[in-house]
Specification:
Elements (H helix, E strand, L loop, with lengths): L1 H56 L2 H9 L9 H25 L7 H26 L3 H24 L4 H26 L12 H23 L1
Helix pairs in contact: 1-3, 1-4, 1-5, 1-6, 1-7, 2-4, 3-4, 4-6, 5-6
Length: 228
């Protein structure tokens, strides 16, 4: 067990270093593609989408990590948390898109928000899958997915940087590269996940209420800490 923990910790650390290096390269390409003004717009919308992602998390990742330790006999299964996460993401980002489309000052950035929201939504689902990889001691599989997704983003950004683009479309193409990389990572997560039966959504209003009761304090603290 100690070797497994050491191995997974080493893989996770190596993966973080690799994704950090790729992230720095991606940021360098984004700033060169967009310029100061569009980069400010991109960062503004991405910050809002990040906060909404955290709100939709609602503490479900930590709750999932805990509940997986109870085994199959427990009444709260991963499928209940998975379906609840999907509903929260749909509601939160739909409301966010509605605000962007309705407010005149935000309307020009509405399409940008929608493209980024797709990426942040699949990233949120991938984060939830991480609890499964951790529970079964195969974090290296998630690391492969994350690095591959980041490489896809960098490759797309490099292709955009190497070719002349319409100025007004640059910001949307950068957002598409971001979301495309996260989508690829999410797909690989699904392929490499150790127990695919866990990915079957489960619906139970009584269990959903129980999950919300457990995760609400965690989610509230995460949001308050971010605001602070």
């Amino acid at each position: 067990m100690s070797q497994s923990v050491l191995f997974n910790s080493g893989i996770a650390l190596s993966g973080r270093i690799a994704t950090l290096a790729l992230g720095i390269l991606a940021t360098a390409l984004i700033t060169r593609i967009l310029g100061a003004a569009q980069f400010g717009q991109y960062s503004f919308v991405a910050t809002i989408a990040t906060f909404l992602q955290l709100t939709a998390d609602f503490g479900l990742y930590l709750t999932a990590s805990r509940e997986l330790g109870y085994g199959d006999g427990h009444d709260i299964q991963f499928g209940h948390i998975l379906s609840l996460r999907g509903i929260f993401l749909l509601i939160i980002y739909s409301l966010g898109a509605l605000v962007f489309f309705l407010l005149p000052t935000l309307h020009p950035l509405a399409l940008l928000f929608v493209i980024l929201a797709v990426g942040f939504a699949v990233q949120s689902m991938s984060q939830l899958f991480m609890s499964i990889f951790q529970a079964y001691g195969v974090v290296w599989r998630a690391t492969i997915s994350d690095i591959t997704g980041r490489m896809v983003q960098v490759a797309l950004l490099w292709a955009f940087y190497a070719h002349t683009m319409v100025v007004s479309q640059r910001i949307l193409e950068v957002a598409a590269a971001f979301s495309g990389g996260l989508f690829i990572a999410w797909c690989i997560h699904i392929v490499l996940i150790p127990r695919k039966k866990l990915l079957v959504p489960a619906i139970s209003f009584s269990i959903w209420r129980k999950i919300i009761k457990i995760s609400m304090p965690i989610g509230a603290l995460l949001v308050l800490n971010t605001i602070y």
